[in-house]
Amino acid sequence: MSNRHLARTIAVQTLYQWDFNEQKKDIKEIMLGVRENFAPEFDDGQFINHLIEGVVKNLKAIDNLITKFAPEWPMDQITIVDRNVLRLGTFELRFDEAIPAKVAINEAIELAKTFGGESSGKFVNGVLGAIYKDMGEKEVDKINKEKIKKEPDEENKTPAIE
Known about the structure:
Blueprint: H1 3-20, H2 27-38, H3 45-57, H4 59-69, H5 80-95, H6 101-115, H7 120-150
Helix pairs in contact: 1-2, 1-3, 1-5, 3-5, 4-5, 5-6, 5-7, 6-7
GO cellular component, one term: cytosol
Protein name: Transcription antitermination protein NusB
InterPro entries: NusB-like_sf (IPR035926), NusB_fam (IPR011605), NusB_RsmB_TIM44 (IPR006027)
């Protein structure tokens, strides 16, 4: 198991316990307990912290995205495992520019298959795929707008004004 995959595994287990306890327990304490029990000699703790802090910091926006792209599944009806795999995957996909989109999606699918139910991988793939598709369309629009700004106006040979 790679260091990054192990870090994501610890992050999902931490988020799961935090969510299971209705977000009332200290998440850093939970993370330390998970690390101690699951991977006591693991040395990439900063990545785990980055993931957990990123999810917690952006929790409302992440949950809104999941709700938007899984409208038939209210957050409280998504299993705790799937919900937290989606949270982690959505954070990496939308909020962490250092993680390639395909890596974020593939890692989330693998975590869902490992810890979730029979259809968890497909569910996570569907939701994150929809979020990715929406991102793609917005990115294309952004690139096109930037391109238009840079292209000179045909008559005046000056940059076009938007």
